[in-house]
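Appendix C. Worked example: Ubiquinone biosynthesis accessory factor UbiT
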Amino acid sequence: MTENMPGLAQVRRAIDGVDDGLVLLLAARSRLARVAGRIKARAGAGGRDEAREQRVRQRAASLATALGLEPEVATGILELAIGAACRDQGLTNDLDQGGTGGSGRMIASTMHTRSDPTPARAQQLLRFVPPPRRIAPLLRVVPLAVQQRLLERAMAKVLSGPLNGGALEFMAGRRLGIEVSDLALRWVVELQGSRLVVVDAPAEATVRGTVTDLLLLAGRLEDADTLFFQRRLVLTGDTELGLTARNVLDRLPWERVPLGLRIALNRGARFASAARSAHRAGGGANT
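Step 2, the predicted output written as structure tokens:
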């Protein structure tokens, strides 16, 4: 009925354009918030910035009032954007998404602590840790079936939320490859029913990277955008499938991952990164 009202279609198209712009701006804000979080983490800064929170809310309310918009509408949208960014990082109520607040304090302490440099003595000792390429031959001794079971169990734990919520339905019958280049390991996973399983079939899309960079990504110590931009992670094959999978994993609430696994990923990523830095400082091969 309303479609025949004069001028309504044009106004609705304009509203759709504004809505699209809002979504684009919210996406840009989300990315900038992640950058802010990484900067604060590397500087060793943590905690909720109450003063900044108050300034941002006041600025939004003042601008809304000047434009004839109810201040609650503007601040409400900001609160939703802040909450979404905090959930992405497993934090709560942190305005610029880089610190910790409330119940997220314990989670953040395991996620964002890369700022402290490795002591010189520890760096010297880390040079004795074999780089991954030297460990690769030892891993070939582990039966493929054992590798597959371990990977399937890890995926079931980490991705239980998206699996139960149907967020991974796009993977049904699709095959995504994971390649750990310096360990010479490669798996192809597929969604079968409500489980991600390792299959013996060609991958439609493959994500490739070193074990260190993949651990940094899994441990939320590096952002996927940064790793792909720096070519430390490479996506080949069906780009749409790979990017969809990456976006789903990027939105995975960190607090839903079992605490023990979060700690293991975080510490493993730190150790691997420190060892790589030590080898590079000593002129050794990249790990």
